[in-house]
Amino acid sequence: RKEVEQDPGPFNVPEGATVAFNCTYSNSASQSFFWYRQDCRKEPKLLMSVYSSGNEDGRFTAQLNRASQYISLLIRDSKLSDSATYLCVVLGSSNTGKLIFGQGTTLQVKP
Amino acid sequence: DTEVTQTPKHLVMGMTNKKSLKCEQHMGHRAMYWYKQKAKKPPELMFVYSYEKLSINESVPSRFSPECPNSSLLNLHLHALQPEDSALYLCASSQVRTGSNEKLFFGSGTQLSVL
Questions:
Q1: To probe the interface with B, which of A46, A95, A99 has the most B CB atoms within 10 Å?
Q2: Which of A70, B24, B40, B42 is the S-S candidate for A101 at Cβ 3.0 to 4.6 Å?
Q3: Are A7 and A22 in contact (CB under 8 A)?
Q4: Which residues of chain A neighbour B107 with C-beta distances below 8 Å?
């Protein structure tokens, strides 16, 4: 089983739609969680951290469910510019300080 | 614009060449990383430097040799690479290596082709 698993998609949605991605992680000791966005042939960029209480940044909402070991990303009112690959990233135990990347979920927003 | 600068942006090299990738950050970060990314795959960690010391080597072949001359610079020396080493090489930095503040800032990468 992969340490961090995502549905690779692609998710094809119309503009204005609401779309949600899930990500599961296997290490219950994992401490920190992030969503990164990566555009084609570009570097990953931090989209948002994910906190236990959930957090929201404009149209984006991230949630963490420690009991079920998954995190989610909700995008409301999708824009064409949201088309990208969304990488779920988990910090393993603090002993290693290693970030573990999921495979990424590709989103295509259509006009 | 990224605050982590990588050069060159593109590199084509033969299997007998020696080349170096360079990375620079001026955010005062004390942890720097090299990642390798193949098309449609996530970044794979290669090396981690923490306070200018190598702290993680993910069993990377010796034809890749990292160097951290100071807290702002990170190099990756390449020698006798194979065609399967062709990939996007990403440098990243973070404030510290461990703990919850592990937000990575990536450079734009070097697209490497080995012929």
A1: A99
A2: B42
A3: yes
A4: 43
